[in-house]
Amino acid sequence: MEKQLEQSRTHIIKIVLYGPESTGKTSLAKALAAHYETEWVPEFSRDYLQEKWDREQLICGREDILPIAVGQMQMENILLERANKVLICDTNLLETVVYSKAYFGGFCEPLLLKQALKAHYDIYFLTYIDVPWVEDDLRDRPDQREFMFDKFKESLDLYEKPYEILRGDFEKRFEKAVKTIDKLIKDRKVGL
């Protein structure tokens, strides 16, 4: 199991969209990947949990956390091989850690936490809650958006991860993200 949660090493710049549900991460991930003509890693848990919901009308349980984490990392590692100098991730293992702790009374599989902290990303874009909530089968905390945002921010601070908060409408978020990624590319002297 530990091997399945390991992140592949690479020279590719890795970006992660990070934060509470319904804060525009997927739309931004797709747009950034299109802008940089590269791959983006979807959120594995969406399909996994939607299938569970469709089959049983149940949301995430503790037994789902490790399969979700393995699926996420496997997808990231596969798409990393096809990425064009930058890889955009719609989520990562640390996000799974935050959700696990929030949903299961502070519990997180030690192996998941270990691998989440070993994984490297050049920047986390923490998406703020100043966009409209969009309901679906899986989103279940519309009244806890601020609480969840704080949990995500606390995790970045606690584990000393590099991040920027993205606020405002889509265009403002996109422009700020592009400016930051362009600087990372320039600093690394990676030509696109």
Key structural traits:
single chain, 192 residues, alpha/beta, five-stranded parallel sheet, 50% helix, NAD_biosynth-regulator, NadR/Ttd14_AAA_dom
Tell me what the structure shows.
- The chain has helices at residues 25-35, 44-56, 62-80, 93-103, 110-118, 145-158, 170-188; strands at residues 13-18, 40-41, 86-89, 123-127, 163-166.
- The protein has 192 residues and is an alpha/beta fold.
- It has one domain (3-186): P-loop containing nucleotide triphosphate hydrolases (Rossmann fold).
- Helix 4 (93-103) runs antiparallel to helix 5 (110-118).
- The longest helix has 19 residues, at 62-80.
- 33% of the residues are buried.
- Residues 14-173 form the NadR/Ttd14 AAA domain.
- InterPro entries: NAD_biosynth-regulator, NadR/Ttd14_AAA_dom, P-loop_NTPase.
- This is NadR/Ttd14 AAA domain-containing protein.
Largest sheet: 5 strands, parallel
Instruction: Write down the CATH topology.
Output: Rossmann fold
Count of extended strands? 5
State the fourth-level CATH superfamily. Answer: P-loop containing nucleotide triphosphate hydrolases
From the N-terminal CA to the C-terminal CA, the straight-line distance is 36 Å
Overall shape: it is globular
Portion of residues in beta strands equals 5-15%
Helix percent band: 40-55%
CATH class: Alpha Beta
Main structural class: alpha/beta
CATH structural architecture: 3-Layer(aba) Sandwich
Topology order in helix (H) and strand (E) letters = EHEHHEHHEHEH
Sequence stretches where pLDDT stays below 50 over 5 or more residues: none
Query: If you average the pLDDT, what whole number results?
Result: 91
Within the largest sheet, what's the order of strands?
2-3-1-4-5
Question: What's the number of structural domains?
Answer: 1
Rg (C-alpha, Å)? 16 Å
What is the overall number of helices?
Answer: 7
Domain NadR/Ttd14 AAA: 14-173
InterPro entries: NAD_biosynth-regulator, NadR/Ttd14_AAA_dom, P-loop_NTPase
Organism: Salinimicrobium marinum
Protein name: NadR/Ttd14 AAA domain-containing protein
